[in-house]
Design goal:
Length: about 200
């Protein structure tokens, strides 16, 4: 056994099984874990994932077919009405804009027993197109508008601190040996995952 294969647990090619019945083949939960038991569990997980994927694919295909059928029915039942409704709405929106213009902006909406036709203003105002030019103007004529933002370079801070935790949540300045306030150290976490047949 070479160094490259020292940690590989040999296991035969999974036999042909009925994936619907496969959960019964899972080792008992009270079984003491070992390489052999782990191999059986990985095999069981592989089969279960395959079964889930197969059922999901079947369900997705059935759902797609049914969705297409229902959408076709809905379009058949409402398509013409939607076109007519859109045309009526567009006509009313164009009309109420004319009403607003004719009134000099005083008449912004019109109410009816079954609804209202309303106009609304949006947008407008000014926007910054050249920040450098605006900043130069403000420095000269409106210095009160200029803001100075102070911040610490985190990348530079990592270089000047030792990164050694004095306590769980403290960092030491490599130059002074003093604890740096405002920093904490998060411990590294080790997580486990299982990949079967190319999927996690």
């Amino acid at each position: 056994m070479t160094a490259d294969t020292a940690d590989v647990v040999p296991f035969p090619t999974p036999p042909a099984v009925d994936l619907d019945d496969y959960p019964a083949r899972v080792p008992d939960p009270d079984t003491v874990m070992s390489d052999e038991v782990a191999a059986q569990l990985v095999h069981a997980l592989w089969a279960l994932r395959r079964r889930i994927a197969r059922k999901e694919a079947t369900a997705a295909a059935a759902l797609a077919a049914e969705t297409a059928r229902v959408n076709a029915w809905l379009e058949d039942q409402t398509g013409r009405s939607r076109v007519e409704a859109d045309a009526i709405q567009a006509r009313l929106e164009e009309w109420v804009l004319d009403v607003r213009d004719a009134s000099g902006g005083r008449r912004k909406s019109v109410s009816f027993p079954h609804g209202r036709v309303v106009t609304r203003e949006s947008g407008g105002g000014w926007e910054v197109t050249d920040r450098s030019a605006l900043l130069a103007w403000a420095k000269t004529y409106r210095p009160g508008l200029v803001e100075t933002v102070e911040s610490v370079s985190i990348a530079a801070a990592r270089r000047v601190t030792s990164g050694l935790a004095v306590a769980v949540d403290e960092v030491v300045d490599a130059a002074t040996g003093e604890v740096v306030p405002g920093l904490s150290v998060a411990p590294k976490l080790v997580k486990a995952s299982v990949t079967v047949d190319g999927a996690s």
